[in-house]
Automatic annotation (TrEMBL):
Keywords, ordered alphabetically: ATP-binding, Carbohydrate metabolism, Kinase, Nucleotide-binding, Transferase
InterPro entries registered for this protein in UniProt: Anhydro_N_Ac-Mur_kinase, ATPase_NBD
Catalysed reactions, semicolon-separated: 1,6-anhydro-N-acetyl-beta-muramate + ATP + H2O = N-acetyl-D-muramate 6-phosphate + ADP + H(+)
NCBIfam families referenced in this protein's UniProt entry, alphabetically: PRK09585.1-3
Gene: anmK
GO MF, one annotated term: phosphotransferase activity, alcohol group as acceptor
Any Gene Ontology biological process: 1,6-anhydro-N-acetyl-beta-muramic acid catabolic process
Known role: Catalyzes the specific phosphorylation of 1,6-anhydro-N-acetylmuramic acid (anhMurNAc) with the simultaneous cleavage of the 1,6-anhydro ring, generating MurNAc-6-P. Is required for the utilization of anhMurNAc either imported from the medium or derived from its own cell wall murein, and thus plays a role in cell wall recycling.
Binding site residues for ATP: 10-17
Name assigned to this protein: Anhydro-N-acetylmuramic acid kinase
EC number(s) stated in the UniProt entry for this protein: 2.7.1.170
Length: 366
């Protein structure tokens, strides 16, 4: 009874990632599984997230369907792992973010946890972000607490960078007297994916090859980096509410000359790399090693640009620390389930801006 399942579906809306892990006496990743989100379902999720004409029925139907899909991901993971389900203490489900508005006091992740509990017969813990928001925090990023728990090193300053739909980082000074810092740096893959789908017809720019074929448009990059989010001090978090196609189209419309599609892709990759690099440069660390995780770790062009902008930091992936970059976020939600089950705080108040440490999540018994 000491195993936990983590379920993650991020802003990229590419897949449901599921892991089976244990945290005591030490971390161990036992099994992993990914269930793709079909393009039509992705489209329906994005339409709901973007809706201005709200339908409670449409919301309810997707909440239910995603709850069932999360349960399927868990049941498939359990079968693949060969583990007896009675050994599993709880599932930690992030849910699918439909809206993230900590400025208005709410954040909304859907995928009915009651249905997950019903269809897996496992205790399901969900809705991790809202307690932090209720305590005055951003409700995001939540992964830094897990990064600290797993990746802190007393002999080296480290930065963990998660490049998902959005990108976020965790600063881990070797000196435990120094604070852990964590925040969203801005867009990760989300704009790259959308522009690529529109012009290349594929879900993402594999290895960043198309972006690498273009030339960075200096005016577009400068206009994008002038968005106040980039220079705002932490705590800060962001989402598709800000960095979306409308945001990009507005910037392009204001240029004296429209860049080619490939040049826009190159500029978007540069934006992600520059905004991450500049955030790392400002951290109070000495020659940190940067460990990348999330799907962006597969984007060779993006990583090359990050290396270019961070010549004094060694850049590698979390695989070097024993956890493959594809599974870090799902593992973090398994860890949050473990924290909730054992009544330990899941947030870092200094990161989210909450009034204090809080036990996160609502528990739906088996
Ligand atoms: N081989 C690859 N080349 C380039 N980008 C990739 C590759 N594999 C994954 N990605 C990117 O990673 C994204 C998924 O990252 P992920 O960490 O799952 O984000 P999220 O947490 O938002 O779901 C994809 O949408 C894509 O942009
Ligand atoms: Mg994903």
């Amino acid at each position: 009874m000491s195993l936990y399942i983590g379920l993650m579906s991020g802003t990229s809306v590419d897949a449901i990632d599921a892991v089976l892990a244990r945290f005591a006496p030490r971390f161990e990743l036992l099994s992993q599984h990914s269930v793709p989100i079909e393009p039509t379902l992705k489209q329906r999720i994005l339409e709901l997230a973007d809706a201005t004409d709200y339908s409670i029925d449409r919301y309810g139907a997707l909440d239910t369907e995603l709850g069932d899909l999360f349960a399927t991901a868990v049941n498939e993971l359990v079968t693949l792992s060969g583990i007896n389900p009675t050994q599993i203490s709880a599932i930690g489900s992030h849910g699918q973010t439909i809206r993230h508005r900590p400025d208005l006091g709410f954040t909304l992740q859907i995928g009915d946890p009651s249905r997950i509990a019903e269809r897996t017969r496992m205790t399901t813990i969900a809705d991790f972000r809202r307690r932090d928001v209720a305590a005055g925090g951003q409700g995001a990023p939540l992964v830094p607490a897990f990064h600290q728990w797993l990746f802190h090193c007393s002999s080296e300053d480290r930065v963990i960078v998660n490049i998902g739909g959005m990108a976020n980082l965790t600063s881990l000074p070797s000196d435990t007297q120094q604070p852990v810092i964590g925040f969203d740096t801005g867009p990760g893959n989300v704009l790259l994916d959308e522009w690529n789908l529109c012009h290349q017809g594929t879900a993402y720019d594999a290895e960043g090859a198309w972006g690498a074929s273009g030339v960075v448009d200096a005016a577009l990059l400068e206009a994008a980096l002038a968005t106040p989010f980039f220079s705002a001090p932490p705590p800060k978090s962001t989402g598709r509410e800000l960095f979306n196609r409308r945001w990009l189209d507005t910037l392009i419309d204001q240029l004296p000359q429209a860049p080619s599609a490939a040049d826009v892709q190159a500029t978007l990759a540069e934006l992600t790399a520059r905004s991450i690099a500049e955030a790392i440069d400002l951290l109070p660390l000495s020659r940190p090693t940067t460990f990348v995780c999330g799907g962006g770790a597969h984007n060779a062009h993006l990583i090359a640009r990050l290396r270019h902008h961070l010549p004094s930091s060694r850049i590698t992936s979390t695989a070097e620390l024993g956890l493959h970059p594809d599974w870090v976020e799902a593992a973090a939600f398994a860890w949050l389930a473990w924290r909730a089950e054992t009544r330990q705080p899941g947030n870092l108040a200094a990161v989210t801006g909450a009034e204090g440490a809080r036990i996160l999540g609502a528990i739906y018994p088996a």
